[in-house]
Amino acid sequence: MKRAINFNAGPAAIPLEVLEKAQSEMLDWKGTGMSVMEVSHRSKEYEEMHNHAQALFKEIAGMGDDWKILFLTGGASSQFFMLPQNMLLEGGSADYLVTGHWGKAAVKEAKRFGKINVCSTERDGVFTSILKQSEIKTDPAATYVHMTSNNTIFGSQWHYWPETGPAPLVCDMSSDIFSRPFPTDRFSMIYAGAQKNLGPSGVTVVAIKESFLAKAKEDIPTMLSYKVAAANNSLYNTPPCFSIYILDLTLGWIKSQGGLPALQKVNDEKARILYGAIDSSEGYYACPVDKDARSQMNVVFRLKSEVLEEKFVKEAKAAGIIGVKGHRSTGGIRFSIYNANQVANVKSSVDFMKDFQKKNS
Ligand SMILES: Cc1ncc(COP(=O)(O)O)c(C=O)c1O
Predict the structure, then answer these.
(1) Is-catalytic flag, 124?
(2) Rounded CA gap, 19 and 13, in Å?
(3) Residue 289's Cα: distance from chain center in Å?
(4) Measured from the CB, is residue 11 less than 6 Å from ligand 1?
(5) pTM over 0.70
(6) Between the N and C ends of the chain, which has fewer C-beta atoms within 10 Å?
(7) pLDDT digits (tens, 9 = 90+) for 160-192
C-alpha cells in the first residue's frame, strides 16, 4: 500500500496512526461487538467518548472550566449565521476583521441579523495581507468582533493576536486550529470545521466561554441555539458520532505529539522548507502574499503561466502528490500542509518542485 502525499485543503490528511486505530476498532469498538457507527448515542460507551473528546479539546487548548465545547453540524459556514443569530440582539452591531474569502462570507450572513462594520484588506477582489494593528478600528459597543485566523484560499495567516478592545473576540480557526498555541483568554468563542486539523468533515467544534454564552438569545429555532446545544451537551439530537470519534482520536494524536508547542515547531519547519524553496527559485515560483502574512498551513504560489501550472498539477499527481491545485477562485498552486503532513512529505515535494523547474525552464 502506498499512501499519497496529501496536500488537500479539506477534507485533508488525517494522521496515519488515527486511521490505523479506527481500522483496528472498526468491527468491535470498546468490546461492544459493534462499530462506533452502530451504537446508540445514548449509550455509556458513546457518551464517555463524547465527553472525553470535549475534555481533551479543552486540555490541548488550555481552556478552563469556564469554557463549553459544542459539537455542531452544518460546517463552519453555519457558524457564519448562527453566531449573529444567537448573539446579535435587536439593534446590535458587530465588527468583522476581513482578511480573506471566508471572513467575507461570514459578513454576508451576519448582515441578515444586524449592523456589521467591516475592516478589510481586500484590494480589487484579492487579499494578500493581514490587517496591521493600526488599521483596526473597532467599536467598543459592538456585541462581538469576528476574525479568521488563517485564510485557507488566499494563503495568509495572522501572526499576531490583535487588540480589539472590550468587545468579545470570536475567531474562525477552521484552517489553523491546533497548529500552534494561542492565548485562549483573548477569545470568547472560537470555532472550526474539523476537516483540516481535527479529523473528518461532519462536525464543527464551537468553544464558547460561559460568560458569552449567557448573553445568547433564547428565542431561536431549537437546533440552531447555542444555549440548547450547551444545555444538552450537544446531544439534543443524534450527533455526528463517527466524526466525533475520529476527532477524539485526532486529539489523542495531537497530545501524543507533545501538544501545540511541539506541533508548532514541526509546522514552522515545514513552512520554512517550502517558502525557502519558493524564494530561492529565482522567481520561477512566486508567492503573492506579503511575507509577514504568509500562512503556515496553506502555501500558495504561482508559476509563469496557467499552462505551466496545469502541467505542474498533473505531474505532481503522477508523482503521488495530491491536491495541489489552487482554489477555483484564485487559480495557482496551493500546498495545504496541515498537522498530519510530515516534514518528509514537504521535503520530497520540494525535490519535485526543483526537478520540475529544471525540466521546464
Ligand atoms: C477558514 C474557513 N472558514 C470556513 C470554512 C467553511 O467550512 P465548511 O465547509 O465546514 O462550512 C472554510 C472551508 O474551507 C475555511 O477554510
Answers:
(1) no
(2) 10
(3) 19
(4) no
(5) yes
(6) N
(7) 999 999 999 999 999 999 999 999 999 999 999
Report CA dihedral (79, 81, 86, 89) to the nearest 10 degrees: 140
Q: How far apart are CA 190 and CA 262, in angstroms?
A: 21
Residue 73 Cβ < 6 Å to ligand 1: no
Position in ligand 1 atom list of the atom nearest CA 78: 11
CA distance 197 to 327: 18
Q: Supply 186's cell numbers.
A: 483573548
**Confidence class of residue 239 from pLDDT cuts 50, 70 and 90?**
very high
Strands 298-301 and 333-336 come out as: antiparallel
- The 10s digit of each residue's pLDDT in 288-311 is 999 999 999 999 999 999 999 999
76 within ligand 1 shell (Cβ under 6 A):
yes
d(CA 195, CA 200): 4
Phi then psi dihedrals of residue 202, to 5 deg = 115, -25
Assign 3-class secondary structure to 195-226. CCCCCCCCCEEEEEEHHHHCCCCCCCCHHHCH
Q: Residue 30 C-alpha to ligand 1 middle, in angstroms?
A: 32
